[in-house]
Specification:
Helix content is 40%, strand content 14%. It is an alpha/beta fold and 267 residues long. α8 crosses α10, α8 (185-199) packs across α11 and α10 (219-229) crosses α11 (241-253). The longest helix has 15 residues, at 185-199. Bound molecules: guanosine-5',3'-tetraphosphate. Guanosine-5',3'-tetraphosphate is lined by residues 49-50, 52-53, 69-71, 110, 112-118, 255. Guanosine-5',3'-tetraphosphate binds next to α6.
Length: 267
């Protein structure tokens, strides 16, 4: 077992609720199946993060509890409310045993780049009381107090993306959760253009102002046109496809290509 996974197992012992951050643009692919075993017997909550960049109609169809833009710390009250709701049986049990006012302890987990640190920072800013070490809590662990009854572990649990399906790997590469190196940037862009052709066919012409029949052109030709439009040229004025691909992914990952969801969520 990897060290990170062992550490997460230790941290999970200390908490009441596991808050799993998924990427709203790929809510199935950005889920790591290991968490189901790691978090048995804990309350669970799912947040579809980066919802501001996902296709709103598709997010609304999902199984989520909350969807959010973690860069804004204004939407944090529903998070605390939902944590309380998810842990209400535990609170009732504690109360029966005479334990009152013991805060609910929560931990953020998720694959790289879903926004774990951003979420913790926003959440922390809201109240920003760091809670020191406590008896029974491993030395050095920092807890962020939120309101009077929730404490969040300040370091997230990182889950490594796991997949056997190449399509899942592609989606994880598009959202920047695994290195682009599984394919070269331009190869990855050619696959991404396939997806855009079917699902968001106007996105490229709108963004890059290119005059090309997207549906009936080769992906390679489309990428070339993006390179020319963005003046990504090699010696001899050859289009620099890798640079064009980098621009394309930068635009997608920052939402400039428009709101998009990469996979269908079953009803
Ligand atoms: P991680 O800890 O899970 O690895 O992710 P992290 O918080 O570092 O966030 C990864 C990137 O995603 C950051 O952008 C961050 O700003 C962005 N992000 C996080 N949550 C949201 C969200 O809800 N909506 C949107 N649109 N973006 C979000 P970056 O470009 O890598 O860094 P930065 O320059 O923005 O700091």
């Amino acid at each position: 077992m990897t060290k990170a996974k062992r550490m997460m197992q230790e941290d999970i012992k200390l908490i009441d609720i596991v808050i799993e951050l998924l990427d709203a643009r790929a809510p199935l692919s950005s889920k790591n199946p290991d968490i189901d075993n790691l978090a048995t017997n804990k309350s669970r909550m799912v947040i579809l993060n980066k919802a501001d960049m996902a296709d709103a109609r598709k997010t609304a169809k999902g199984f989520f509890v909350l969807s959010m833009d973690s860069r804004k710390n204004s939407g944090m009250k529903p998070v605390s409310d939902t944590i309380r709701e998810a842990c209400k049986e535990k609170i009732a049990r504690d109360r029966k045993r005479g334990i009152i006012n013991r805060p609910i302890r929560a931990m953020i987990v998720g694959i790289p780049n879903v926004g774990k640190s951003t979420f913790i920072n926003s959440y922390a800013k809201k109240s920003c009381t760091k809670v020191g070490n406590k008896p029974g809590v491993t030395k050095g662990k920092q807890w962020i107090r939120i309101g009077k009854d929730v404490e969040l572990l300040d370091t997230p649990g990182i889950l490594w993306p796991k997949f056997d399906d190449q399509e899942i790997g592609l989606r994880l590469a598009y959202i920047g959760s695994i290195n682009d190196e599984i394919l070269t940037k331009s190869e990855l862009a050619l696959k991404f253009i396939d997806f855009l052709k079917i699902n968001y066919c106007n996105a490229l012409t709108d963004r890059y102002n290119i005059d090309i029949d997207i549906q009936n052109s080769e992906n390679f030709e489309i990428l070339k046109q993006i390179a020319v439009a963005r003046l990504c040229l090699l010696k001899g004025n050859e289009p620099d496809l890798d640079k064009a691909a980098a621009i394309l992914f930068d635009d997608f990952r920052s939402g400039r290509l428009g709101r998009m969801t990469l996979e269908e969520i079953p009803e």
